[in-house]
């Protein structure tokens, strides 16, 4: 049996959950190694030594993977983007890791997640780019302000919340039109384009009061219900739930 991919990071991280969903869709054996940031585990030497040099070590959303490159000493690390390009053997963020996983394990699991057809792949990449550049900024801001700030006992910025909600509504209007034309964003198959939207949308729908932004739109609501109902994502959501303490 192949050595499992080791995933380091807090399960509640949107970056971690994106990668886990991809690994599950591709039937890749993995081992999740939680990192409890509230206890400062992300600052411990054993964790710091596997991070990409020059990346912020206090980063709140991170995921580190080992064994993907078949190089014992070279971890694949996903962190928030850095202005300094990482070394060749490192990948800078969760979407890059997902692409790598999809290429490396192309012949197993869900083979439609990242098509080998050039035109289909171009369409997938177009919508992955839309997620990263248009959907992610306002949705991430809302997730932080509405879901994480209260937990961290930080004051919410109402100006950021209002501005982000306005931007996200405009994005979802475009999605509503697109999803009226096709079952999923890149066509009639569930792909990386749809998967990439799962983490932030999960928080907004299940933890905040902004879920109606998705459910009130006929096509977006139908799409969300379908992609969030996938077995792979249900397993990720279960992993995010607090685990009962181990018995002595």
How would you describe the overall organization of this protein?
The model is unreliable at 52-64 and 66-92 (pLDDT under 50). The radius of gyration is 18 Å and the shape is globular. The longest helix is centred in the middle third of the chain and has 34 residues, at 118-151. It has 248 residues and is α+β, with helices and mostly antiparallel strands. The chain has helices at residues 14-25, 45-48, 94-104, 118-151, 158-179, 192-195, 198-206, 212-215, 218-228, 231-240; strands spanning 5-8, 30-33, 63-66, 76-78. The chain has a 4-stranded mixed beta sheet with strand order 2-1-3-4, with helices on one face. It contains 10 helices and 4 strands.
């Amino acid at each position: 049996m192949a050595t499992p991919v080791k995933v380091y990071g807090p399960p509640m991280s949107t970056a971690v959950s994106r990668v886990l969903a991809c690994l599950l869709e591709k039937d890749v054996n993995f081992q999740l190694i939680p990192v409890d940031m509230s206890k400062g585990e992300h600052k411990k030497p054993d964790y710091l030594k596997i991070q990409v040099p020059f990346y912020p070590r206090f980063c709140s959303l991170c995921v580190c993977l080992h064994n993907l490159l078949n190089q014992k000493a070279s971890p694949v690390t996903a962190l928030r983007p850095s202005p300094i390009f990482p070394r060749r053997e490192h990948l800078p963020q969760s979407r890059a890791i997902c692409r790598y996983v999809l290429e490396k394990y192309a012949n197993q699991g869900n083979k439609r997640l990242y098509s080998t057809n050039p035109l289909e792949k171009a369409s997938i990449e177009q919508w992955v780019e839309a997620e990263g550049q248009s959907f992610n900024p306002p949705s991430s801001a809302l997730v932080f302000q509405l879901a994480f700030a209260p937990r961290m006992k930080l004051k919410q910025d109402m100006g950021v919340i209002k501005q982000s909600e306005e931007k996200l509504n405009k994005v979802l209007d475009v999605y509503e039109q697109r999803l009226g034309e096709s079952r999923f964003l890149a066509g009639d198959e569930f792909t990386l384009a749809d998967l990439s939207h799962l983490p932030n949308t999960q928080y907004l729908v299940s933890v905040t009061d902004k879920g109606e932004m998705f459910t009130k739109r006929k096509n977006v609501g139908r799409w969300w219900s379908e992609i969030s109902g996938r077995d792979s994502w249900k397993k990720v959501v279960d992993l995010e739930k607090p685990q009962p303490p181990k018995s002595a």
